[in-house]
Amino acid sequence: MIEFTDVVKSYGHGSPALNGVTMQIEDGEFCFLVGPSGSGKSTIIKLISGELRPTSGTVHVNGYNLERIRKREIPYLRRTTGVVFQDFRLIPKMSVYDNVAFAMRVIGAKEREIRDRVPYVLELVGLENKAKRLPSEMSGGEQQRLAIARALVNNPSTIIADEPTGNLDPARSFEIMSLLQEINNLGTTVLVVTHEKDLVHLFSKRVIVIDDGIVVSDGEGYYDED
Amino acid sequence: MKINNLGYLIKEGFHGIFLHGFMSFAAICVTIACLLIVGSFSILAYNLDVMVDKLNQTSEIMVYVDSSLSDAEARSISTRINQLGNVQKSVFISREEALENFISDHNNNAAFNGVQAQDLRHRYVVTLEDNSLMEQTDSQLQQIPGVAKTNAAYELAEGFTTIQNVLNIASVALIAMLLVISLLIISNTIKLAMYDRRDEIAIMKMVGATNSFIRLPFVVEGFTLGMTGAVLAFGLEWVLYDTLVERISSVDALRLFSFVPFTGDLMIPMLLTFGSAGLFVGIVGSWTSIRKFMDV
Fold first, then answer.
1. In this predicted complex, what is the ipTM?
2. Cα–Cα dist B230/B226, whole Å
3. Which one of A121, B9, B148, B199 has the fewest beta carbons within 10 angstroms of its own beta carbon?
4. A168 in the Ramachandran plot: left (φ > 0), alpha (ψ -120 to 50) or beta?
5. Quick one: which of A82, A91, A84 has its CA closest to A135?
């Protein structure tokens, strides 16, 4: 579960990036976080992943209180959330298989577990036949699928997708969103940060709208940029 | 970090060395150069120590008799010498015996065929009771009529001690300076490796890698660079030292200098010093460069 209570985050002397955000995303939910550039979406993601600490207010993510979290606990917090980025952030010199296996090695998984889990996750995202390819040999949509596979492989309770369709054409965007919905159907909480309102309307899920550091609306299915 | 990652992390560390081959080569070369200089200074200081100790242990003074004295007069001086409190015994060596000893010391070299006994002086080898009073006894010996000059090792020992002190100060300064240089070079090599892999590190952090997991390959890399430099420097030092000692020993004018054999007292301390310096430079060099990449 992700819970923000009256969260303020200031970077310096200017106006705060977040100015009293309160929201709660339950386990197993699928939720869109939308808002214009500079509205505070990235700050929310950084707070969830433990990259930043709130200036005031409390943030709870999957059982961790980020106000009090110790530095050495942050890697363990991050293992509970898988993050997918617009620019994929894959390791170009590693094959598809190794990009996913790498995420397991990093948390100390045994080779046998890696051999069992990676093909399963690649199959889940539809890349089972491309395990030996390099990311550069794949399309944007496939690269994003790979990024999702990597985020999923450690079985996190939450997937955070930061503009996952920003570099993709509409058809590929739809595929990626469908994949995220499938993952959500398997029980994983999914938070998608986007500004593509067509997709948001199409999938008809909970939408949290943030603007100028505050939550301006929180409801089902539709939002109006105005 | 779990134990089943260890093999993977060590492999990654070695991989990093070859990924930045030139910088790794430079780091090893600088470590070798620094350790060679440090090692050479230390060996020289140690040899001087041994020489000074040896000279201090010598309880003999050579007393040369005035060449204008007859044989009988020269022999009569022994009474005055033996009267001195600190003298245990004195042995008279005639100029003929001195020449014989000199030629036999030089393997009967034909070059000394023309040397006459008359060119040398009669002499006494005076053995002392208490070595610490050498300077005082030497001065008393010089005042005996018929004594032309004396040769006491304490003057030489003092000379060696001065050189030794200068060398010790220079060694400490050099060791500190060269260690810092080695540290900087290894640290830069690791920084380069980390910079090259910064995206990978960011991904590792993102998926929940602990700092020790990220750090270990770079520490392995630094350790390997430092230890490779240390082992090669040790081998080179050994070869250079043995060659130098052999050359110096073959020059008669430098026979006064006696060197400790490398395989004797030097090998183990040098191995330990080089090993720990390599270890220190490698691990500290990599550890310090990693820190700034950890805050992702």
1. 0.84
2. 6
3. B199
4. beta
5. A91
Which residue, chain included where needed, has tokens 């991989």? B15
Indicate the length of chain B as a whole number: 296
Helices (H), A21-155: 41-48, 74-78, 96-106, 111-124, 140-152
- Assign B256 a pLDDT band (cuts: 50, 70, 90): low
Range of the domain at B20: 3-55+157-294
A206 - beta bridge partners?
A31, A220
Amino acid identity of residue B177, one-letter, is M
pLDDT in tens, B50-108: 877 776 666 688 899 988 888 888 888 888 899 888 888 889 998 888 888 888 877 77
Tell me if B62 is assigned to some domain.
Answer: no
Q: Which residues contact B123 (CB under 8 A, 6 or more apart)?
A: B62, B63, B64, B65, B92, B93, B95, B98
Could you report the per-residue pLDDT of A14-36, keeping only the tens digit for each? 789 999 999 999 999 999 999 98
Per the CB < 8 A criterion, the answer to whether B79 and B146 are in contact is: no
Give me the residue label for tokens 């409190």.
B85
CATH architecture of A1-80+157-226: 3-Layer(aba) Sandwich (3.40)
Instruction: Examine the domain organization and report whether B168 and B280 are in the same domain.
Output: yes
Q: Does B202 touch chain A (CB under 8 A)?
A: yes
The reply to whether residue A107 touches residue B207, judged by beta carbons under 8 angstroms, is yes
Look at B4 and A79 and tell me if their CB atoms are within 8 Å: no
- CB-nearest to B208 from A51, A78, A91 is A78
Q: pTM for this structure?
A: 0.67
